[in-house]
Amino acid sequence: MTNDQTKHLAASLDAEEALLPFVPHLLQDLWSLGFSPEAPLRLLERNLHEAPQHVVDLGCGKGALLIHLAKRFGWHGRGVDIVPEFIAEARRYANDWGVADALDFEVKDMGEELAKGGERNLVLFGFDSEALGELQEALARIAACVALSGHLLVDLAWARSGHSADLPSEAQVLDSAHAVGLRLVDREMLDPAWVATEGSRHVELIRRRAKELAIRYPEHSAAFEAYVMEQEAENQLLTKEAHCGYLLFARSGQKAR
Ligand SMILES: C[S@@+](CC[C@H](N)C(=O)[O-])C[C@H]1O[C@@H](n2cnc3c(N)ncnc32)[C@H](O)[C@@H]1O
Q1: How many CA atoms lie within 13 A of 212 on its CB side?
Q2: Are 154 and 222 in contact (CB under 8 A)?
Q3: 138 lines ligand 1 (CB under 6 A)
Q4: What is the residue extent of each domain of the chain?
Q5: Ligand 1 pocket, 34 CB below 6 A?
Q6: Where does the Methyltransferase domain lie (predicted)?
């Protein structure tokens, strides 16, 4: 992994770089590493009436969303993630759920996946680091790889008005998308109470694993504790200062910049 990839990976997982080797252990009890697949499933079911031919999930983690799409709608797809342990888990879940033939998972940088060219009918992307650049640049790079009739599903958090969180505003998100030739089709915002409960559940699962690791590696115990605290702080930020949700975009017909 290059230095930049490591930096972006650490940001996307809210971890210090030194802790990255332990992250698969810390996250072993979670399948979905972002929000639950239910909201995006509702959004896609409401808006996409034909199975997209080429679905790609950039930073698919352990494949939770793609596996649900394959199981629920019979869609085929491909997921890439830079963490080999996550891809191994994605393949295992796909087998367990009986959808391994419909899905292809690969350890790969998302930028390299886009650079290989081709047109996708549906791209799934969580904006949680600058692995593809700042928001507008990331959207532009993805939009350039979406077929004219295709869609982009983005999960992200934006700052609630009046809050100075280190997050973009709703207007910045929508303006950035518009500027690169994307039109908002529909959205599914998450209930803050649900985000809080689900976030706390995740933190408790992580805390248990952090305690295990602190016994095995006492020299890193402060770092494990700091990781749990960082997850708690992230949870507070998402529940109190942000709106979290899924936005479905279509190509607007104008050329993506
Ligand atoms: C917050 S997690 C979300 C995972 C998944 N989308 C989900 O909802 O379960 C972000 C994911 O992006 C992956 N990631 C970070 N940088 C990446 C890169 N440069 N290329 C591919 N994947 C990357 C991480 O390994 C992680 O699995």
Answers
A1: 12
A2: no
A3: no
A4: 3-193+236-250
A5: yes
A6: 55-147
43-48, long-range: CB < 8 A, 24+ apart: 43/153, 43/186, 43/187, 43/188, 43/246, 43/248, 44/69, 44/73, 44/122, 44/153, 44/248, 45/72, 45/73, 46/186, 47/151, 47/185, 47/186, 47/248, 48/122, 48/151
Atom of ligand 1 nearest to the CA of 128: 1
Residue nearest to atom 1 of ligand 1 (CA): 34
**Probe target for ligand 1 pocket from 103, 105, 110, 142, with the most ligand atoms within 8 Å of CB:** 110
- Hey, what CATH topology would domain 3-193+236-250 get? Rossmann fold (3.40.50)
The C-alpha atoms of residue 161 and residue 231 are separated, in whole angstroms, by 23
pLDDT tens, 5-49? 999 898 888 888 989 999 999 999 999 998 889 999 999 999 998
